[in-house]
Design goal:
CATH architecture: Alpha-Beta Barrel
Number of domains: 1
CATH topology: TIM Barrel
Helix content: 40-55%
Strand content: 5-15%
Strand order of the largest sheet: 4-5-6-7-8-9-10-11
CATH class: Alpha Beta
Number of helices: 14
Order of helices and strands: HEEEEHEHEHEHHEHEHHHEHEHHHE
Structural class: alpha/beta
């Protein structure tokens, strides 16, 4: 077995382990939260609306979405992941919601698994987001590899994810993040689709968002703390005591999602902004939108549903849409834009 074959096999094995651990182990943050629980909507007992007239559609990166929802980046590269992605894509198409896939590095290293990411045939009309780890730009990846993952997905945009903590916890993780901002800037100028930068559950600060936007990044996914802890996930996978200890120590590290949304929106009023990190239902989605996000991403709820069946994913989307619509109805707002402008979301004073 040559070195490249060995690396791709390790990457594929890691993908399978990630799915198993997320579904079977307690890898949620416990001490830190998304921060959304600190906010509450003001109830309108007389909304002066017909609930049937409420419109929760929106536009994001030039695509019309039936609801402000993103199936966040999760998986790919294994047979099980291919089934999950197909189920998610078919439901995304039915409800016209956005979808991202997990890191496509494994598809670059092992082209025969590219089909597990190739979901455009199931979702011809939806916003599809390709995905690579930004750190791979320091490990021989460049424009060609980015173009390849965009081609596999027929993607509308490319997510470059930032995961320094996860790489620290991961055994033999890729931890050379030096000079990445300049390389991201070059890609933003060369790629034919917009670049989105996201974290993986530890948040993006306003200071960093400002630098990324100056480099040419077109959208930000805050991916804040409060949901799945990838430090915990990697701790579960660790093959030595040091990595397991690091994962436990930093299990609740990061910036709460709500804080990221408000801080970034304050310095970048118009940037397309995705809220993710610990969102678990439509009420969380509505809070994130009211705080300034354009759309909201959920991962764990969709992974749990897709592991069961396509019907379970449909049921989840129906619930999320009903919950978002109920928030608008009970705050007297007919559209998402009205919700943002209404001032009906208030921070709870303790």
């Amino acid at each position: 077995m040559n070195v490249s074959t060995s690396i791709s096999a390790q990457t594929q094995s890691r993908k399978a382990e990630h799915i198993r651990i997320c579904l079977e182990e307690d890898v949620q943050c416990h001490e830190i939260t998304s921060g959304l629980e600190r906010y509450r909507f003001s109830h309108s007992c007389l909304p002066e609306l017909d609930r049937n007239d409420i419109d929760i559609s929106t536009n994001f990166l030039g695509k019309h979405l039936g609801a402000p929802l993103l199936i966040s980046s999760m998986t790919g590269g294994t047979e099980e992941a291919g089934i999950i992605n197909r189920r998610l894509a078919e439901v995304a198409q039915e409800y016209k919601i956005a979808m991202g896939v997990g890191s496509q590095r494994v598809a670059v290293e092992k082209p025969q698994v590219a089909e597990t990411f190739a979901v455009r045939k199931y979702a011809p009309d939806v916003l599809l987001l390709a995905n690579l780890g930004a750190v791979q730009l320091n490990y021989k990846y460049g424009l060609a590899e980015c173009l390849r993952v965009i081609e596999i997905l027929e993607a509308d945009a490319l997510i470059l994810h930032l995961n320094p903590l996860q790489e620290c916890i991961q055994t033999k993780g890729d931890t050379n993040f030096r000079g990445l901002l300049d390389k991201i800037c070059i890609l933003c100028n060369e790629l034919p689709v917009p670049v989105i930068v996201k974290e993986v559950g530890n948040g993006i600060s306003a200071v960093m968002a400002e630098k990324l936007l100056a480099a040419g990044v077109k959208a930000i996914d805050v991916a804040g703390a409060g949901g799945t802890s990838w430090a915990k996930v990697e701790s579960e996978r660790a093959d030595n005591a040091l990595q397991r200890r690091l994962g436990k120590t930093f299990a609740d590290w990061g910036l709460p999602t709500a804080d990221c949304i408000t801080a970034i929106r304050a310095i970048a009023p118009d940037v397309p902004l995705i809220a993710s990190g610990g969102l678990r239902h439509g009420l969380d989605v509505a809070k994130a939108i009211a705080l300034g996000a354009n759309i909201a991403g959920l991962a764990m709820p969709f992974l749990q549903a897709a592991a069961l069946s396509e019907a379970a994913v449909k049921d989840l989307v129906e619930v999320l849409i009903a919950e978002i619509t109920t928030v608008l109805f009970c705050t007297g707002n007919a559209t998402l834009e009205q919700l943002k402008l209404s001032g009906s979301l208030q921070r709870i004073q303790y």
